[in-house]
Design brief:
homodimer, about 100 residues, DNA-binding, alpha+beta, 5 helices
Chain lengths: ~100, ~100
DNA sequence: GGTGTTGTTCGATGATTGTCGAACAAGGGT
DNA sequence: ACCCTTGTTCGACAATCATCGAACAACACC
C-alpha cells in the first residue's frame, strides 16, 4: 500500500496547520525535529497504538512526514527541508516553544 | 464586557495553530496582515455574521487579535508584534502562501 | 509451521467545531 | 422616541475528530 505522501505544495496551508494543532502530533514532530528516523512505536505519548497510527497518518497526509518500511517496523522522518523551503520559519517557530516546565 | 484578550505566552501553541487552521479565519488574518484596523463587518467571506463573530472570537481568544470599540463598530487588529516576537517567522510563513492562481 | 512483534484498519463513541437563524444589546441619526 | 446599523449570544444541527478495543496483515525468528 502506497503510504500516500502528497506533494507539499498541493496541501492547503490549513491542513498543515491543523496537523500541527494537536498536542500528540506536536510531540511526535518535536521528537523528529533533530532529523532522526524513528519507528512508529517509539512515539509513546500515552495514547493507544491505534490512536498513534491515526496521528501518524494525519501527519503523513499533511505532507509533514515520510515513512518507509524497514522489516516489521516503519521508520518515520520529518520532511524538514521541504517544509523549511515552503514555509520558512514555521517549524522553527512552532518547535521553539517548549512545553512549560 | 471585557474582550478577553489573553497573554500570548499563556496560550498553548496548539491553540494558536488551531486558530490559524481554518480558511475563514486565515482570510481574516490575511486581511489584517498589513497592520490595518478593520471593523468586523469588513470581513465578508461568505459566512453569516454569527459565524463571523464566532471566528473573530476564536482569533481573539487565541491571542491573535485585539479588538476595541469605536461607536457601534468594533475595530480588529492583528497582534503582529507580539506574535513575531513569540513565534518568529510563523505569520510570515503562513501568510506568504498565496492561494494558487 | 507457529509464535511474537509491529502497525494498520475497522467500527463505535464522545467531544469539539463550523454553521445558521433568531433574539438581544449598544450606538448613532433623524 | 423611533429606527437603523453593527455585533454578540443563544440554542440547534451536522460534520469532523480524537480515542479506544478488537481484528487483521506483514515480517522475523525459532
Amino acid at each position: 500500500m502506497e503510504p500516500h505522501e502528497p506533494d507539499l505544495t498541493a496541501v492547503p496551508v490549513t491542513s498543515v496547520l491543523a496537523a500541527l494543532a494537536d498536542d500528540v502530533r506536536l510531540q511526535i514532530v518535536r521528537a523528529l525535529a533533530d532529523g532522526s528516523e524513528s519507528p512508529c512505536g517509539s512515539f509513546d505519548f500515552g495514547v493507544s497504538k491505534a490512536t498513534r497510527s491515526h496521528h501518524l497518518k494525519v501527519l503523513r497526509e499533511a505532507g509533514l512526514t515520510r515513512t518507509r518500511a524497514a522489516g516489521t517496523s516503519r521508520l518515520v522522518r520529518l520532511r524538514r527541508d521541504e517544509l523549511d523551503q515552503l514555509y520558512p520559519g514555521l517549524l522553527d517557530a512552532v518547535l521553539a516553544q517548549r512545553p512549560p516546565a
